[in-house]
Amino acid sequence: MLRFGYKAATEQFGPQELLEYVRLAEQVGFDSIWASDHFHPWMPEGEAIHVWSWLGALGAKTSTISLGTEVTAPILRYNPAIIAQAVGTLGVLYPGRVFLGLGTGEALNEYPTTGKWPAYQERHDMLKEAVEIIRKLLMEDYVTYEGKYFHLRDAKLFTKPSGGIPIYLAAGGPESTELAGELGDGFITTSKPEQFEQKLKDALLKGLQRAGKDIKSFPIIGEIPLAYSTAEAVLPDIRKYWGSLSLEKETHDPKKLGNLKEREKWTRGIGDEQLLKAYFISTDPEEHVEKLKSYIQAGFTTLVFRSPQRDQKQFIINYGRYVLPALQKEFA
Questions:
Q1: Is the pTM of this model over 0.85?
Q2: 256, 261, 264, 266 alpha-carbon torsion, rounded to 10°
Q3: Which of these, 150, 300, 163, 273, lies nearest to 218 by C-alpha position?
Q4: Cα–Cα distance between 171 and 124 in angstroms, integer?
């Protein structure tokens, strides 16, 4: 079944405003809310909602829509046992509606709060332990765990849903993708269809095979950056709120990645064309539908739409009116 998610950008919008957008998204046909988990925004003009506080309000303000993080990094500023407790409580409050998206994190959130930003391999290994801990706490009774990075001593979640919580793992490279296939209940990626098929699909299949899973029944979630707008109209919003998003491709220095002043300074040197090329931008619903077909044909089962435009209502209403019905009709 094809699903449509709304990316709740907690690093762009304040908590009350974002709740209104989510309620509208539910009304027009989105079936899931994927909330970012940031301590710092990408740019100083942004916001930084505490997502776990906000998700509790989100569940109360909506009726049927699924909700969760995309993604939480349970390795440095969070202890994985506390994340298990948080998502377990949400699962009791909103049965059958809650999921958990996990990843290896970003320096702009982890370094300012801990002073640490380990190399990727260490964060990957930490995530593996964290997933094991969270799943054990959600599914078992008293848990003792002895890992390289995390330890539990007769720990137990006294408030948790009876059926567990789906855990989706985010990845952009082969090693993390393989881990998602092996340990996750689904796979989240920002990769485009051709990148997924050429660079990640084999790794996902390898992980799935190791765990005895079938890709035909395994959720593949794609976050898609786009705008129902014109390039001229949306460019200021991209620069203001998302300008430093690609800095991670330029450096691994945590003192730069974790410093908003450095990120803003770096963004000033980025040309308009470079900022725009990451997004599909159009006011023609047929063009949006055609663009999204490639994700579905590549095997993506959930499309999560992230729009950088300040006018979220324009995006949500037009997608609900034109784009989602057209996709549902063709791929039902």
A1: yes
A2: -40
A3: 300
A4: 10
Q: What is the mean pLDDT of the chain?
A: 97
pLDDT tens digits, 241-295:
999 998 877 877 888 888 999 999 989 889 999 999 999 999 999 999 999 999 9
Domain coverage including residue 191: 3-331
Tell me, what CATH number does 77's domain have? 3.20.20.30
Q: Is 232 a catalytic residue?
A: no
Which one is catalytic: 11, 26, 70, 106?
106
Say whether 106 is catalytic: yes
Residues 12, 309: Cα–Cα separation, whole Å: 10
11, 26, 38, 129: the catalytic one is 38
Compute the chain's Rg from CA coordinates.
Answer: 19
Average pLDDT for residues 20-24, to the nearest whole number? Answer: 99
Cα separation, 38 vs 10, whole angstroms? 7
Q: How many domains, the chain?
A: 1
Nearest alpha-carbon partner for 222 in 162, 260, 168: 168
